[in-house]
Amino acid sequence: MSPPPIDDALSESFFDALFPAQDAAPLAEAPEEEGTDTGRLNRLVEQWPDPVLVVDPQLHCVLANRACQPWCQAPAGHLPLPLEQVLLPSLWEAVLPHVASALRCADTDAEERLLHPTLGLRHMRLRAQAERSHGRVVSAFVYLQDITDQRHAATPHTRSADTDAHLRLMAEGLRDAAIFFLDAQGHINDWPPSAERLLGHRADQVLGRPVSDVTSPADASTADDPMLLGMERAALLGQSETPGWQRRADGSAFWANTLLTVLHDETTGELQGYACLMRDVTEVQRLIDMLQELNHTLEARVDERTRQLQDINQDLEAFSYSVSHDLRAPLRHITSYVALLREDLGPQAPADALQDLERLADAARHMGLLIEGLLAFSRLGRAALQRRTVAMDDLLHSSLNRVQHDPALRRPDGEVVWTLPGDWPEVQGDGLLLSQVWDNLLANALKYSRPRQPAHIAVGWRRDDTEVVFWVGDDGVGFDPRRADKLFGVFQRLHRATEFEGTGIGLALCRRIVERHGGRIWAEGQPGSGSTFHFALPGSAAPDQPTQAAG
After folding, report:
1. Could you read off the pLDDT of 93-121 as tens digits, one per residue?
2. DSSP string for 83-141
3. Dihedral pair phi/psi, residue 89, rounded to 5°
4. Residues 138 and 172 in one domain
5. Residue 330 forms beta bridges with which residues?
6. pLDDT 10s digits, 21-46
7. Do both 492 and 390 map to the same domain?
8. Is 268 exposed, middle or buried (0-12, 13-18, 19+ CB in 10 A)?
9. Would 153 be classed as within a structural domain?
10. Are β-strands 60-64 and 136-146 bridged in parallel, bridged antiparallel, or unpaired?
11. Contact, 477 vs 528, CB < 8 A?
12. What are the φ and ψ backbone dihedral angles of 191, each rounded to 5 degrees?
C-alpha cells in the first residue's frame, strides 16, 4: 500500500524528513515547543501504517511507532531499550546489518523474507538511512513495508512465463519422442526440434501441411490412418492414445505410441487444435512380438507334449489290459499243472521232486503278486482323487486292525509294543487311498521289526505352518541311509527276498498317493537301529492344538 501524499504546508515532506538525501544538509534541531511542523511530523509517524524505527549509535531503539507493535517483544512505552530486546528475533537478525550500514553512512534498501510468529512468512521491504547532525551520524531511521500481497500478485505471471519456458525446453529436448501441435483442421502449426529429430522433416517443409501427409504410411487408407483416427477420438473424448506405424522423411517406418490432446479456447471453448506427443516404441513392439511368438511356440509344444502323454496313457491302458489278461493266463496254467503233478506223484513222490514243485508254485504266486502290484500302481495314476474331510484316527485304527490280523504279519501277544497318540487331526484327502499308505507303512514296521522281541512301533504326528506330518517308527533292522532314495522306487528293495518277503511296490504306491495329495514322503534310518517313515499332507497351522509326538 502506498503512503498518502504529505501536506504541502509542511516545511519538508515526510520522506525527506525520514530519509534525507546523502548530500542534503543536516537537519536543524528545533525545540518542539516552537516547531509546530515537528509535532505534526511526530503525530504522522505515529499514525503511519508501516513500521518506523529510530536507532541511536549504541543500538538503542529510541522511537517505534504503533505499526511496530506486531514485530516487537517489548512495549514501546518503555523506550529507549536495546534494539535486540525490542524486536522479535527474526526482525532483529534482519534489521541489524542494515542499521549497522546506516550508522556508517551507507544507506540500504532491500527485500527480506521474515517469519512472523502469527502471520507466517512475510516479504518485507527494509530501508535504513542515517540522520546527521553537525556532520556526524546521530541515529538511523528504519522503515519497513509489507509487500507480501504485491509479491503474490506478481507470482502467477512469473510462474506462467517459467512454465512456458520449461515446456518449450522439454519439447525441444526430447529424445526418441516428439511434441508438436496441430490446428483444428489437423494441419501442423508448430514443429519443435524434437519432432524434426524423430521424423526427419524440417519445420519449413511441414508447417501448414496435413499431419497425415507427413507421418502416416504411404499405403495407409483414410479408415486406417492412426493420426486421423486419433484426432476423431480426441475430439469426442478430449484425449486419445493410438498405437500404429508412422513414417519418417526417409520413408522408413517405426511403431509409435501417439497421444493426442484437444486444445480449447479458454474463453469461448472452441476447438483450437491438438497437442501431439509421439514416441518411438519400435523396440518395445519388437519384444512384444517376440514374446507372442514364443508363447505360440510354447503352446504348440504343450499341445504336442499333451498328445504324446495321451498316447503314452493309451499304451499304458493297453499294457494294463494285457497284464491283467494275457500274463495272468500263463500263471494260472503253471499253478494248475503244479497241482496236477503233485496229485499224480502222490505222497510217495521223491522229496526233490516235491521241493521243485513247491518252488514253481512259489514263483508263480510271487509273479502274480508282482502283476497285481503293477496293476495297482498303474490304476492309481489314472484314478481321480475323491477329496473330503478325513479323520486320521479312523483310518489308522482301521489299517492297524487289518495288518494285525494278516496271517503273514501276525505276531504272538506281547511281542509288539505299540505307542499311539491320543487324538488325531482331520485332513483333506481321499480316505481310501490314504488308508493304503497306512496299510503299507504299518505292515513294513511289523515285517522289518520281526527280529526284535519285543518290537517297539511308534506312530505320531505334528502340525507345522503349512502341513501336517505323520510318521511310523520301529526298532527293526533299519537300512543304509545312503540308499534311502531307492526305497520309493518301483520294485526297489534293500533287503533280500529270503530275509523279508515283498514285491517292492508298497512304498512306491505310498509315494504316488502322497504326491497326488500335494504332499511329500521321506524315510530316516540306520542299519540295526530301526527306521522312521514320514509323510506330510497340506494343512494350515492350529497354534492352540498341542503337538502329538510318538513315544
Report:
1. 888 888 888 888 888 888 888 877 777 77
2. HHHHB-HHHHHHHHHHHHHHHTT--EEEEEEEEETTTEEEEEEEEEEEEEETTEEEEEE
3. -55, -40
4. no
5. none
6. 444 333 333 344 444 566 777 777 88
7. yes
8. exposed
9. no
10. unpaired
11. yes
12. -135, 85
- The conformational region for residue 18 under phi > 0 = left, psi -120 to 50 = alpha, else beta, is alpha
Question: Looking at the predicted structure, is the pLDDT value of residue 14 above 60?
Answer: no
530 shares a domain with 408: yes
Q: How far apart are CA 507 and CA 488, in angstroms?
A: 5
* Residue whose grid cell is 538503542: 60
Of 144-153, 271-280, 411-420, the range with the lowest mean pLDDT is 144-153
- Position of cell 511530523? 41
Whose CA is closest to 279, among 213, 205, 197? 197
- Looking at residue 200, the DSSP 8-state letter turns out to be -
CATH at residue 357: 1.10.287
Q: Both 351 and 453 in a single domain?
A: no
User: Residue 79 carries which side chain, given as an amino acid letter?
Assistant: L
Q: Using alpha carbons, list the distances in angstroms from residue 37 to 47, 64, 254.
A: 15, 19, 84
| C-alpha cell recorded at residue 129 | 538511512
Please state the separation of Cα 386 from the chain's center in Å: 38
Give the Cα-Cα-Cα angle 148, 154, 156 (nearest 5 degrees): 115
- Residue 426 pLDDT greater than 80, yes or no: yes
- The amino acid occupying position 488 is F
Say which CATH number the domain at 98 has. Answer: 3.30.450.20
Can you tell me the distance from the alpha carbon of 142 to that of 131, in angstroms, rounded to the nearest whole number? 11
The 8-class DSSP code of residue 9 comes to T
Are the CB atoms for 212 and 227 separated by under 8 Å? yes
Gap between the Cα atoms of 54 and 63, Å rounded: 5
As a whole number of Å, the CA-based R_g of the chain is: 51
Question: What cell was used for 170?
Answer: 522439454
Could you write out the DSSP letters of every residue in 460-500?
Answer: EEEE-SSEEEEEEEE-SS---GGGGGGTTSTT--SS-TTTS
3 state DSSP class of 363: helix
**Kind of pairing between the strands at 467-474 and 426-429:** unpaired
* 523 and 428 housed in the same domain: yes
Q: Amino acid identity of 401?
A: N
Q: Is residue 3 part of a domain?
A: no
pLDDT for the residue 495: 59
The residue with cell 487311498 is 433
- What is the percentage of the chain residues whose pLDDT exceeds 90? 11
According to DSSP, residue 69 is labeled G
Annotate 470-489 with b (16+ C-beta within 10 A) or e (fewer): bbbbbbbbbbeeeeeeebbe
pLDDT, average across residues 158-168: 59
Q: How confident is the model at residue 133 (pLDDT cuts 50, 70, 90)?
A: confident
